[in-house]
Predict the 3D structure of the following.
Amino acid sequence: MSIEEKTRGKVRVVNNRYKFEGNFHYASPNSPMINESGKLVGVTNPRDMTYVHTYGGEAVFFESLSQGKLVASRCDNDDCRSKGSIFMPFRIHCPDCLMRATQVDITDIAKRTGKIYSFMICERSGAFNTLPKPIKFINIEFEGVCTILMGYLSVGTPVMGMRVVPIFNTKKPTYTILDLSWVPEGTKKKDLPKNFTFG
Ligand SMILES: [Zn+2]
């Protein structure tokens, strides 16, 4: 472990308060930018900062992925016209009545009914991408769920209407959305990406 990794900022939570420990900012030496005539035109400024991303009421969703579960939310408010609607991606509150939604496990529904609603294949990616390219982004629909989930296909080529099943990074979770991926129904365990399981 490098000195930087040892001192890299971490956050503990004690009595619902964040305790920051270590360094959250690292500055590296800059370097001059010189044009073809040998004249200075500027400098590069390397900066490294640790972003603190709090999940709040959505934490349960990310923790569930690490346990091979897909948790959605449902409105159970008798006075809401959307009562009974199941939302995936997970949301803390019903978007229609703003009441706190109920958490529902839809792992089995996703395994039985997930299918590709639409897709796009991206040959280029943004900064900090860690997924292999091309990235096969898929939109997945589920029976009884009123929203469409965005995800990425790890095996094969997407086809409209293709049945897909969720896979989860349960062996070395990152606690990010990348812990959830999809493969065509019938994919063999041995063909899953490293650290991923069927849950
Ligand atoms: Zn509602």
